Amino acid sequence: MNTKHSRMASPPDVPIDPATRLALYRKMMEVRALEKRAYDLFLQNLIKGTSHLALGQEAIAAAFGVAMREDDYTFCTYRGHAHTLVRGASMTGVLGELMGRECGLMAGKGGSMHLTSVPHGAMGSYAIVGAHLPIAAGAAWSAQYRGTEQAAVCFFGDGTTNIGAFHEALNFAAVWKLPVVFVCENNLYMEYTPIGAVTAVEHPAADRASAYGLEPLIVDGNDVEAMFKVAQTTLARARAGQGPSLIEAKTYRHSGHSRADPAKYRPAEEVAAWMRRDPIKLYREKLLQQGVEEAAISKIEASVAAEVDQATEAAKASSVPEESIAMTEVWANGDWSWRN
Amino acid sequence: MAELTYRDAVAAAIAQEMARDPSVVFLGEDIAAAGGVFKATVGLLDRFGPTRVRDTPISEQALIGAAMGAAMTGLKPIAEIMFSDFLAVCWDIIANQIAKTRYMTNGQVTMPLVIRTANGAGSRFGAQHSQSLENWAMTVPGLKVVAPATPADVVGLMAAAVRDPDPVLFFEHKSLYATKGPVPEGEWVDQLGKAKVLRIGDDVTIVALAAMVPKALAAADRLAEQHGVTATVVDVRSLVPLDTQTILREVARTGRLVTVEENPRLCGWGAEIASIASQELFYDLDGPILRVTTPHVPLPAADNLEDHVIPSVERIVREVLQAYD
């Protein structure tokens, strides 16, 4: 990773306690298991439409999922299964939504690209690139106004750094000193095109930070502990009234942009190099080196495997939604009518 | 009754709601320190302070997105888009995000916000600062759409919009800002989705909105005085929800319907009302339904050109009389 133009984030050198380390590992495993299952269910034609998997990018979601306060707000993109799950939404609710079942988080009305679980602070997955950055800023404004010390965290891809809403939201959040953390998951490709081929700067997010008076923060997005530490420092900064942060987390997706994309445009050596840097594999090795018992890790893995199996069966067993709900919840009174 | 200008009614309405509910906040470009480019929000910053009345950068996506995020998390924002033409700059946030999020999340999210904007022609601003765009909003499920014609309706409908749990687009008409009218004393709250019958006649029902309402009334006077045709005039006031009961009742009684719309011809709000009337009142109609609209052209700037395309009192009279040919 070339960081010559930007400083690496330098979080405080506080050791992460053992329970937190296992929580980070578990969150990553949950996301991995869920995304793999989503892929399998797609192949079985049980999931329709499209889906954008976060396989390979689990460390970023997991780190924030562990670091965030229960009442913080998450805003994410159509690649949002991971970010919704790590806030505490149930696997059954997520898989059910992907499968268009009654048990889905939104009873089938939203689908893969719009997962939302307000009771868990997962304030929505947004499928128009860039739209949710201003919206996250607005939630942060609300927290600032209400004086709650809540923070909003907004995840987006590298491609988003070239759309207008990104720049509007960063300036707006900086001027109003809003408690929002913007997290660019730079997986090196905007859909099918290398981000470097369409961006004027080397680091698509970090190199823009100075334009908004922000510190450029580049983090290894496949190092879950580094991500956890930068999550802690940026969230603390937000709560302290010091304004927004912009993090660029370098990572790589294991699969294509979406269900329709076999990702043949990526060089085999590049894919192989990043597969060796699989965040879960890396962290498993690190935990063992740090003296964590293999049994403790295996126990997590078995528990997550059982959880995803159970969730799959529950979602499969759930009915399809009643057709009548297609005509509800346009308005707050539950109704859809536009005339008397 | 107090006599207020339409312009001062805007600030009065916002002040009434901000004084009542601390979760009401107001943001937009030049709305605070400058009091708005149309001077419709003068005094609000002084009265409510800079945490509740906030100037934004020229960033329509940021300010409308911020209003949405705030509405989702407990506030009731009023956001100003200076000219309705600029709605196009943030239409993604309005049409894709604000309008659909409650539905997509199956009711998890409530979106109590108001977007108020200066709409319409008459100021010789040309094609990008003069449009009547209420029908854009009307085509998107999940948006409520209001366009007041009088100072009393500015206050009453704004209060209703702020208190409504759903997103409301509030179209103020530029050419009405200087007009005056009575506004009830004390707290004044009206109801969304209610049309108002302003004048009773027996021969034809003229349905109008915003700046077309005073023109429709003037046309009705002239029709009665010079041509012996008596017209009912209905101010639609609210396009979504749409008070079809009031409109259809009046059309059934007079047997004729003319809509007067400032928007360009295609898919204007009058087309929807005409469609409903033709389907539901077919056997009550004594003649074809007419639509008086701006022709399907961008708006020109010069005085005589703008006047030529926007429906005038003369044109309304002429086209109504054609219905009898």
| SSE arrangement of chain A, N to C | HHEHHEHEHEEEHEHEHHH
Number of strands of chain A: 8
User: Count the helices of chain B. How many?
Assistant: 12
Global shape of chain A: globular
- Secondary-structure content class of chain B: alpha/beta
Number of strands of chain B: 14
Range of helix content of chain B: 25-40%
Radius of gyration of chain A: 20 Å
CATH architecture of the largest domain in chain B: 3-Layer(aba) Sandwich
**Main beta sheet of chain A:** 6 strands, parallel
The largest beta-sheet of chain A arranges its strands as 2-1-3-4-8-7
For the terminal residues of chain A, how far apart are their CA atoms? 62 Å
Order of helices and strands of chain B: EHEHEHEHHEHEHEEEEHEEHEHEHH
* The first-level CATH class name of the largest domain in chain B: Alpha Beta
Instruction: Please give the most extensive interface between any two protein chains, plus how many residues each contributes.
Output: A-B, 53 and 50 residues
CATH superfamily caption of chain A: Thiamin diphosphate (ThDP)-binding fold, Pyr/PP domains
Account of the 3D structure:
- The complex is a heterodimer of chains A (340) and B (325).
- Chain A has 340 residues and is α/β, with parallel strands linked by helices.
- Chain A has a single domain (27-311), classed as Thiamin diphosphate (ThDP)-binding fold, Pyr/PP domains (Rossmann fold), CATH 3.40.50.
- Helix content of chain A is 41%, strand content 11%.
- Chain A has 11 helices and 8 strands.
- In chain A, strand 5 and strand 6 form a beta hairpin.
- The relative contact order of chain A is 0.17.
- Chain B has 12 helices and 14 strands.
- Chain B is 37% helix and 21% strand.
- Chain B has a 7-stranded mixed beta sheet, with helices on both faces. A 5-stranded mixed beta sheet of chain B has the order 9-11-10-13-14, with helices on both faces.
- In chain B, helix 8 links the parallel strand 10 and strand 11.
- Chain B has helices at residues 6-20, 44-48, 60-72, 91-98, 101-104, 134-138, 151-163, 212-227, 244-254, 269-280, 303-309, 313-322; strands at residues 2-5, 24-28, 53-55, 76-83, 114-119, 144-146, 168-173, 180-183, 196-199, 204-208, 231-235, 238-240, 257-264, 290-294.
- Chain B is of the alpha/beta class.
- In chain B, helix 1 runs parallel beside helix 7, helix 8 (212-227) packs across helix 12 and helix 9 (244-254) crosses helix 10.
- The chains are: A alpha/beta (340), B alpha/beta (325).
- The interface between A and B is large, with 53 and 50 residues.
